[in-house]
Structure prediction request, 426 residues.
Amino acid sequence: MRKVGIAILGLGVVGSGTYKILSSHREFYQKTQNVDLAVESVLELDREKALALGVPAEKIRSNIAEVVADPDVNLVVECIGGVGAAREYVLCALNAGKTVVTSNKELICKYSHELERAAKRQNAGLYFEASCVGGVPVIRTLLDGIESNRVHTVAGIINGTTNYILSEMTENGSSYEDALKRAQELGYAEADPSADVEGFDACYKLSILSSLAFHTKVPYTRIFREGITNISPEDIRHGKELGYVLKLLAIGKQTDAGIEVRVHPAFVRKDHPLASVEGSFNAVYLVGDAVGEVMLYGRGAGDLPTGSAIVSDILYASTHSDIRYSTFKNGEKEEAGVQFAEDFSSAYYLRLTVADKSGVLAKIASALGKTGVSIGELIQCGSKGEVTTVVLVTHETHESNIKSAVEKLNATEIAKVDSVLRVALL
Ligand code: HSE
Prediction:
């Protein structure tokens, strides 16, 4: 039986989950995979934490040099997070010829070109299933399950914190601030929630997933990004009346105009499979030219779900002699000649305050029509004296058209646009 010595860097939520799975499933993997996965060392400065988890005292290390110098360690699992020490330690492990498994989306998104170069030089593996959507096996699906396809859409709800916040606002009418506070109390959102609520986390994951799906580097800097901090319960309520649910969507599409990649809040029709993904759950929706639609659903974070993805990568690395690298030219930037579609198209939800008098709706329709925007649905939501709220959803149009339409409407005496949200055409 092949024995593989493992080092775990960092015993936070993900590192602890990985340690627990490796300890509790060791005999199971011996039986089912004919491989013995032995944790040989753990890099953790908080010794008490490591001891409480059951790590034997002699396996606790406090510096990376000791870990990579250990000849019994073949594979290093990085669960530190961020791009400071994590980047340095992963490079150190790869340069020493150790295969690396990581859950670090920011590191893979920003530096996989550099890490992969080091890995190839040393004939070491670099695996990162856990970096995207926790326990949901989306990278394996892209690389193995549907590799026979030209994938033209990778979209989904790939951040649990924001999905929890938006679900809370939808179900209970909570304000953004109250929903965020609840997410923090439950441990979903960090004390500084900006990576999640401003959409960076989803952006890193979308960069990785769309690079794999479209077989070309999609740098995160090319991704349009808008977070959820300005969402009001009022818009969620009006959307609901029109049959929509608001989600933070990550959307990657291969179109005739180029690669379209964006992260932003968007209304989804309530009968679309993504609409029923609630709370901290995640889902990825893929469309391939042969298979059609595929949807994966599950936990995108947490100790055991993310540990599950890490240990599956460890098993893959331990039972395959060939090493699997990126299926695209992995440079720092996009490849020359690859087009990105920036003026993407969508349907749009607009909330307006308008003068409550005759002929106003015709003037709104006319102002929109002048910029090539046509109205699909419209509701008037009661009068507040001289003004009233009007909510409308447009037919498909371009981002540039909607910007001009909003400028035109705001320039009139009769209407002020209070809110603009995209409506997903998935
Ligand atoms: N913070 C992420 C989320 C989990 O809320 O989905 C790890 O990527």
Summary: The first strand starts at residue 2 and ends at 9. The chain has a mean pLDDT of 96. Residues 159-161, 196, 201, 300-301 surround L-homoserine (CB under 6 Å). DSSP finds 15 helices and 17 strands in the chain.
